[in-house]
Amino acid sequence: MTAATFDSTFVESEERQALRQAVAALGRRYGLEYFIRTTRAGEHTHELWQEAGKLGYLGVNLPEEYGGGGGGIAELSIVLEELGAAGSPLLMLVVSPAICGTVIARFGTDEQRRRWLPGIADGSARMAFGITEPEAGSNSHRLATVGRRDGTDWLVSGRKVFISGVDAADATLIVGRTEDARTGRLKPALFIVPRDTPGFEYRPIEMELTSPEKQFQLFLDDVRLPADALVGDEDAGLLQLFAGLNPERIMTAAFSIGMGRCALDRAVDYARTREVWKTAIGAHQGLAHPLAQARIEIELSRLMMQKAAFLYDSGDDLGAGEAANMAKFAAAEAAAKAVDQAVHTLGGNGLTTEYGLGALLTASRVARIAPVSREMILNFVAQHTLGLPKSY
Ligand SMILES: Cc1cc2nc3c(=O)[nH]c(=O)nc-3n(C[C@H](O)[C@H](O)[C@H](O)COP(=O)(O)OP(=O)(O)OC[C@H]3O[C@@H](n4cnc5c(N)ncnc54)[C@H](O)[C@@H]3O)c2cc1C
Predict the structure, then answer these.
(1) How many folded domains does the chain comprise?
(2) DSSP strand pairing (171-179 vs 127-130)
(3) pLDDT tens, residue by residue, 304-357
(4) 116 and 140: one domain?
(5) Residue nearest to atom 44 of ligand 1 (CA)
(6) The overall pTM is greater than 0.90
(7) Which residue range or ranges hold the Acyl-CoA dehydrogenase/oxidase N-terminal domain (predicted)?
(8) Using CA atoms, how far apart are residues 292 and 38, in angstroms rounded to an integer?
């Protein structure tokens, strides 16, 4: 690795800075008020999604020959971070272009790439991602969704829970298992399941979140799929899964960092002007220091996210795995703390509907739980980075 390429993870190239500024300008035209108003009206942020798609932001990471921008997860994370910093994060960026787009671009057949990537890139098609199951939870070894061959077709059955955005997605990429013909063991396999496929049912879960993307329970009951619903090759399921999970973690970090910045900006604006005694409340170190600390922690987690994106985009899946886990952990903790401190800075106004920060309280906790909980990341680092024994 040359010094120049290494430096580029610290100092953003002019192209990336320009992308950041352009996305920030789009985000400002929508913002937190739009996001909360739309969500409370029970609507989706489709206008923003479509505009971002037309401008080429949704597919910055996808190959140019399929309508993408030819960049990587580094670019896509900039898009999500800046939209989030403006108050209008698009959660489905974590799923549609980052997981599904990446997996199909890397492992899909030519036909699957042609069918899905141009739409995912321009925003006209969306794909949800379903791995979590009610019984398996954090233990993905217990996944019980199974695809069985029936002639050339697949019959897929199972249940999923907490799957985001299924109602607005054309299809869901379902993580299941198939039987290995040689060993008889079950191994991971990814199936593209269009939303209107008979036997595929989705029901919303009531969540305490101000988010336009809803979470769903999925019921797959002998869902008949054609042979080409299986992504790529039957033997590459595990590789495919990891190819999708690292971008998911990096993008969840971007989601958190954007939200943390949004909350912090609002708190700082408020603390600069609100006077209770003789000076602005931001002059009191009891308020200023936690805000300064939140800024430092957000900045540090962004650095880790940039490292993870750099490793991933350079093809180092293994190195990216550790960095992506650490980045997601750090960003989720930093955002939860920043939002909490921002709410506190506004006093009573921190919980008014008008200031919009209360809505971020629950949203900022999501990244501590999903896509992998903070404890499972600590387990990963304890075992893989530190070499400590496993307790479970
Ligand atoms: C808003 C939201 C959106 C989501 N979107 C999606 C989506 O689009 N697609 C998808 O597939 N999933 C999605 N999820 C699901 C999410 O990935 C899971 O909730 C998460 O992986 C945790 O699984 P669980 O809820 O079953 O918790 P559990 O596995 O039951 O864990 C419960 C608690 O126990 C702890 N725990 C479990 N095992 C251990 C251990 N060995 N050591 C220490 N602690 C442990 C966990 O850290 C956690 O705190 C979403 C979840 C939320 C909240």
Answers:
(1) 3
(2) parallel
(3) 999 999 999 999 988 999 999 999 999 999 999 999 999 999 999 999 999 999
(4) no
(5) 375
(6) yes
(7) 13-123
(8) 32
